């Protein structure tokens, strides 16, 4: 897929890494708008005890808030930037695999809101690098476009509130339809309520992850 091409300097990209157990996966934790690399790492022991943690910080600033990609308004994404930033995240993952000796360990993205969206975009565009995503309050990241190829190796769990104005059901419907049309395995769970991260989401994510390996 098109997008960012090149290497990244890990020393210049703020991130956290905790190795966890060598026989456990590494959870790539991706924060929401205004968060940082520490925002959702506390979830990891509740999702997979012993998992490693790889947590980068988004590199876009919007009125002082950290994000993963640009947007033109609430829910209106700059799709070209989404594609480029997904490529950057791939380059980050490749550099981190080498530095931290992660070859052979599964990396599973776990993202909230804007972090869920970049995780979804990366898996749908670069399934050879990232093929499992836990998406809390995520939505379709490509607006009216469909840049997705064969994603038959990809597995997604979509965890959303039924009345979420920031990740509306119509966009999640679109996400599910496109991912399925291109071969992905999609598990969608809907709870009452809006944008956020409920205990039922954590419980569902833990159950889903337990079935992956």
From TrEMBL:
<dbReference type="InterPro" id="IPR003140">
    <property type="entry name" value="PLipase/COase/thioEstase"/>
</dbReference>
<dbReference type="Pfam" id="PF02230">
    <property type="entry name" value="Abhydrolase_2"/>
</dbReference>
<keyword id="KW-0378">Hydrolase</keyword>
<dbReference type="GO" id="GO:0016787">
    <property type="term" value="F:hydrolase activity"/>
</dbReference>
<dbReference type="InterPro" id="IPR029058">
    <property type="entry name" value="AB_hydrolase_fold"/>
</dbReference>
<protein>
    <submittedName>
        <fullName>Alpha/beta hydrolase</fullName>
    </submittedName>
</protein>
<feature type="domain" description="Phospholipase/carboxylesterase/thioesterase">
    <location>
        <begin position="95"/>
        <end position="209"/>
    </location>
</feature>
<dbReference type="InterPro" id="IPR050565">
    <property type="entry name" value="LYPA1-2/EST-like"/>
</dbReference>
<comment type="similarity">
    <text>Belongs to the AB hydrolase superfamily. AB hydrolase 2 family.</text>
</comment>
